[in-house]
Amino acid sequence: MQPKILLVDDRDDNLISLESILEKDDYHFVKAYSGKQVLKILLHEFDFALILMDVQMPNINGFETARLIYEREKLRNIPIIFITANNFGEENVFKGYEAGAVDYIYKPVNADILRAKVSVFVELYNKNRQLILQEQKLVGINKNLEIEINERKSSEEKVSMLNKQLLENISLLESANKDLDLFVLMASHDLQAPLRKIRMFSDMLLHHSEQLGESEKTYINRIGQVSKQMQELINDLLEFCKVSGQEDPEEMVDPNIVLNDIILELDEIIKEKKAKIVVEPLPVLFINPALLRPLFFNLLSNSLKYSKKNVAPHIRIYSKISNESKGRKVSGRPLQYCRLCIEDNGVGFEQKYAEEVFDMFRRLHPKSEFEGTGIGLALCKKIAEKNNGHIYARSQPGEGTTIIISLPIERISEKNAVL
After folding, report:
1. Which of 63, 120, 136, 320 could be a cystine partner for 339, CB 3.0 to 4.6 Å?
2. Which of 121, 96, 118, 122 is CA-nearest to residue 109?
3. How many of the other CB atoms lie within 10 Å of CB of 167?
4. 198 near 120, Cβ under 8 Å?
5. Beta strand pairing status for 101-106 and 337-343?
6. Looking only at Cα atoms, what is the longest distance across the chain?
7. Bridge pairing between strands 333-334 and 80-84
8. Which H or E run contains 112?
9. What digits encode the pLDDT tens for the residues 243-297?
10. How far apart are CA 360 and CA 237, in angstroms?
11. Strand partners of residue 405
């Protein structure tokens, strides 16, 4: 299936020019000559990989059209790149990004830059479709499993057969999850090639900056910033997928040493925000050392990021020993857990979202206020579960947040762990 691209311009020659530049890449083009026509098309079609839209159009301009598009839930994931011949000031450029644009391209259009940018978003679109298909397969497996469970409850023999089938299906689900993680890992890796091209073209333009005006330099720098954000997203996806491949914990680790290193790494932003970090002595834990660092780094970075304006962040890190064994035993004794708590005085959030904040790409605050990829807390949750623990949050708007990670203080293995 050819990726669909919506081309929007009130001049037919501009549409023909865009189509001629991109036609060899085997895209399917849909053309519109006004904002009203765009909205009419999107009432019936919304499976577009990208929208390339002129800013200056009669009646409804590009900014207003973008705002109306993103009011519909089904259309919010379609990226929009504005194409314009005007050199907008900072305020109008920000207005475009605020309307939902992911980038600007200026006329006369540089064919190589246009193709590179379009290829990145089309690649993201294709990978996303494949992930959705994988998810649909998993949903289908679960649905079939539920039907089988209902049908096989009639007799002990059927229940026995069902148990066997359940084990097989669990194995299939685990295999599917591993394949999905591998797919995301490979997809993220493949996305870096077109991204490198964008950054390379930007660097080449900056290398010849003596021929450019200040506004052109600003726009090139913005391309670099957007590329950097995408690189951060790809790196976070790769980090997320690597967690599944990590070995089970095999050694005792002193979290105090790891935490001190992270605080030194974040020293610049700590000084910038005049943050105060109080670290109480933490116990040695049985945890994979390769996973402890990203766990602390993401949680501490979040506390610094989601601080109140004009209020110095105050972060307290401490621990408690808990007998929350939930029936589990190690060597005949109830399993003990260490609760690692990261408490801050930041913006906080409503407690009803305490579970949702750990979902992938879940954001409770506008991206314009707080940057990020929406993967950090999902990664922390995966790390906690990978180390036989769990994570949860307590928070109130304006009163800060406390993240609690519960981890076992002893090694859990098939030999010494029982229910």
Report:
1. 320
2. 118
3. 10
4. yes
5. unpaired
6. 82
7. unpaired
8. helix 111-151
9. 555 555 557 788 899 889 989 988 998 999 899 999 998 888 877 777 888 888 8
10. 10
11. 340, 391
Residue 28's contacts (CB-CB under 8 Å, 6 or more residues apart) are 2, 3, 4, 5
In sequence order, the 6+-apart residues with CB closer than 8 A to the CB of 352 are none
pLDDT at residue 71 in the model: 87
The b/e string for 335-374 (b: 16+ C-beta within 10 A; e otherwise) is: bebbebebbbbbbbbeeeeeeebbeeeeebeeeeeeebbb
The alpha carbon of residue 359 and the mean position of all alpha carbons in its chain are separated, in whole angstroms, by 9
CA-to-CA distance for 361 and 388, rounded, in angstroms? 23
DSSP E strand boundaries for 11-140: 28-32, 50-54, 80-84, 101-106
pLDDT tens for 26-50 read 899 999 999 899 999 998 887 898 9
- CA dist., res. 315 & res. 307, Å (int): 10
Q: How confident is the model at residue 135 (pLDDT cuts 50, 70, 90)?
A: confident
DSSP-assigned states of every residue in 226-269:
HHHHHHHHHHHHHHHHHHHHSPPP-SEE-HHHHHHHHHHHTHHH
Q: Is the pTM of this model over 0.85?
A: no
- Identify whether the C-beta of residue 153 lies closer than 8 Å to the C-beta of residue 159: yes
Measure the CA–CA gap between 391 and 254, rounded to whole angstroms. 19
Phi and psi at 399, nearest 5°, equal -115, 10
How far apart CA 80 and CA 101 sit, in angstroms, is 5
Sheet of 390-395: strand order equals: 276-279, 314-322, 337-343, 401-408, 390-395
Domains of the chain, first to last: 4-109 (3.40.50.2300), 114-245 (no CATH), 252-418 (3.30.565.10)
DSSP string computed for 296-355: HHHHHHHHHHTPPTTS--EEEEEEEEE---TT-EETTEEPPEEEEEEE--S----GGGTT
Question: Which two three-digit tokens encode residue 310?
Answer: 């004009």
